[in-house]
């Protein structure tokens, strides 16, 4: 494969292997797989998507490499990222990680937050992420420094969303709930309301205030909900019933939902059936949930702690996978590569048809925003924005797929060859 040059806009790319979920049902098959595609670009947009017809001498030849549209990172924590060097928890598990985070936040100056947040976003962009949603911890009724600082963290070609991650207890007071929702609503677009909802802080009256204030300020929600193994965790069950009985016009992402996998099958199915009738997306975070759930010193974990993703898919609930924490008290490792998350899910959730079907779990921005009218990525007229995995094939992908070309609006922005450091081309 000849190398690509960053200086000029591309006419397009020939011979790309795209996932079946992205192609129209009439797309031709070759040896039981979707035939490769030729993509043509014009003014930074896709002007045509057709089955390959060689030779297309004016197009760069991808030689059958796998490619995806720009990927999404639906759940990150840019305020905490890259703090592991100074904040290693002394105990395992989620609540201990939260305690360690509280000790570290004395260091969260504007400069510290900017530097770490920018680095996280730049790493995500270099991997091919074009949309990243970060949660930002709130500690009082007024926005934390990180809420303001992350508004100024930018990376070319990446849409950044901010979610206020508010401990449920702060919503117990209806006027505080309203203040928080107003501050989020007045922070501009790409801002959502969220909450940390757990057996340790369960309060149905606070939940009601949270829902009312989100409605009053027309905010979408992204909730950390039932991130625990307690089968009797209340959050998702309460939410499913609340939404069945009360109108809520926004979209809701439910992140974690680990407890759904701890209770009975019947209990999970009942909650999923109710949620499937609402504008709700379920986000699984396999890496941190494997690390933080069933975590006891010196004991091998017996449970996986990951939500019932397959059952949610069967029930018709949109689903996504996120990386969650990167190099902080919650997770010491990570690099903002959605392929790492998908690789982890391959094993921990025993996913199959990874590339052709489940790669959607790291690309579906309509599932993240709830905007069902979003045009299909790579359809004619869409932005010519995609990620190519040179030398890849469906037998090894997503493992062994470090090599990457990121194309934004028809131009190469990042390229990494085998074993090379992340490089930025501009
Ligand atoms: N899994 C997590 C829960 C709460 N806060 C985090 O940063 N991460």
From TrEMBL:
InterPro entries: Amidohydro_3 (IPR013108), Metal-dep_hydrolase_composite (IPR011059), Metal_Hydrolase (IPR032466), Metallo-hydrolase_Enzymes (IPR052349). Residues 204-413 form the Amidohydrolase domain. Pfam families: Amidohydro_3 (PF07969). This is Cytosine deaminase.
